[in-house]
Design brief:
The structure is a homodimer. By secondary structure, the first copy, chain A, is of the alpha/beta class. The first copy, chain A, is 50% helix and 13% strand.
């Protein structure tokens, strides 16, 4: 028989979450289970959402007063859609404890930094971060403590920020089960534009195209979705507010990669029209390589 | 204790498979396990593939003489890429037994019918079919008997064909675990263009676009693929020959749906450029509905 391992001392005394959707509630559940914090409170603008969070016991308390929630917190994580981060930072700023860390979970980093940084009070450490994790479900009921397990969390510390604060936040995310990577905000936005934003945009488009089909054809699409389409519907069921904000706030990187994608798609379209099988084969053969590389990295 | 259920008499005495890749080998394994046939032989043009099939014991015998394999067979299924179906039918035609059924598994129906029908001897029943099942793996080693379990098989009987022959083929596919649907060939090609061919084309394109990225960016794409991109890589790892033939042989339907997709994508692209969040939200919200419909049908 082995002696149960003693849990390390909590990294933070009080964690405050602004927003308690899929990500916020999963952070709360993971942080409590792993003993990363002593107390975790949350605030959301919606009374109904707060009621749900309290009923489910996801946090010690969830209210609707954002500024009140951050009082005495030594870690504050803004878990709202990207478009609301700046305004939320403005609201909570006056109540933030000197020496505390404030972070976010946005899928876009440059725009969030642009919006939040002007409101961060002196003496508070702003360390933006992005856990690359999610499901197609939203709201506090959707959260679960293993959401971040084995997934990347990208931390994008700003120039001049206290390195110890960034390291403590990284430690927190590792405690939630994540693998942490440091990255510059602009590079993050470019990479995520390719691996996440473009695939979501494409999935939304193709499912929308199918949804526009007339009656009988649409029901056949649903019936026979197993042919590849199904994978797209899962992606295209993701939270619409979150994704609207992502595209509005990572416009340049998305438009740039989208232009390349369009070019490549027209190249294939033309090859189909002209019956150029060799061009199709060459690309279809080549794309197997990236899957192999993924499998080698155990990402698939 | 229950008495083991007696297996029904085989539906066919001898099954001959032309081609023994993922689909052919899975048919052989399912047909044998379920006692649907007494004997199953196969033939493939590649000696190496035949050797593999024999070594794995997937069929009673696999050779490289296509015409020899179909002798005395009362069911012949051509399991080669769509582009080779016509020529294979021409080669096996002289040896086909009167009264036998010949079918295929092509993802495209109109072109396969155009290519195969002229060679089908009088007295042989040609019943085209398409099992909507597959994985990203190819070759006889990739086959497994449960591939068709719970998946659709679309049978597209031609006008004037013996209805009993179509029903027997449908019975065979049900025996392999499939759900069978009868459909007109042109309608099949339209529906599959949407649920399968377009998604594959898009996945191939996006993975190709990422693959073209310069060094560091490409390795980051692989590293952080979990953000949505991963689902596309699986689809884009499918057999290149099969998919080349699909696009060359379902050109009209694919180009038509692709044009609609392009229009829709440009609409979203423009909305991103002009910051029209309401348009993005409306589409992102709407696409959730089709996922719900899918879940209701237990397809997801």
């Amino acid at each position: 028989m082995s002696v149960p391992e003693a849990k390390p001392a909590p990294l933070f005394d009080k964690l405050a979450l602004i927003g308690i959707g899929l990500i916020g509630s999963s952070i709360a559940l993971a942080a409590k289970r792993e003993g990363l914090v002593r107390t975790v409170v949350a605030a959301t603008r919606s009374q109904a959402t707060a009621d749900t969070a309290n009923r489910l016991g996801i946090v010690d308390h969830c209210g609707t007063d954002l500024a009140a929630a951050v009082k005495d917190a030594d870690l504050v994580i803004v878990c709202t859609p990207v478009g609301a981060c700046g305004e939320n930072m403005r609201v909570i700023a006056p109540n933030m404890k000197p020496g505390a860390i404030v972070s976010d979970v946005g899928s876009v980093k440059q725009a969030v930094i642009r919006d939040m940084r002007p409101h961060v009070p002196a003496g508070v450490h702003f360390v933006p971060a992005h856990p690359i994790a999610g499901t197609e479900h939203s709201g506090p009921e959707a959260g679960f403590p293993d959401l971040f397990k084995g997934r990347w969390c990208i931390v994008t510390p700003l120039e001049g920020v206290d390195r110890a604060a960034a390291d403590r936040l990284a430690e927190f995310w590792r405690g939630c089960g994540s693998m942490v990577e440091f990255m510059a905000p602009d590079w993050h936005d470019k990479v995520l534009g390719i691996v996440s934003h473009l695939p979501h945009l494409i999935a939304y488009t193709i499912v929308g195209t199918a949804d526009d089909m007339a009656g009988e054809q649409r029901s056949e699409v649903i019936k026979f979705a197993a042919g590849g389409f199904r994978d797209f519907t899962r992606i295209a069921a993701s939270d619409p507010t979150m994704w609207r904000d992502v595209f509005l706030n990572n416009r340049e990187a998305v438009l740039e990669i989208l232009a390349r994608f369009q070019e490549d798609l027209f190249y294939l379209q033309r090859a189909i029209r002209w019956g150029e099988g060799d061009k199709l084969f060459e690309i279809f053969e080549r794309t197997r390589g990236i899957r192999r590389a993924l499998l080698d990295m155990k990402q698939a």
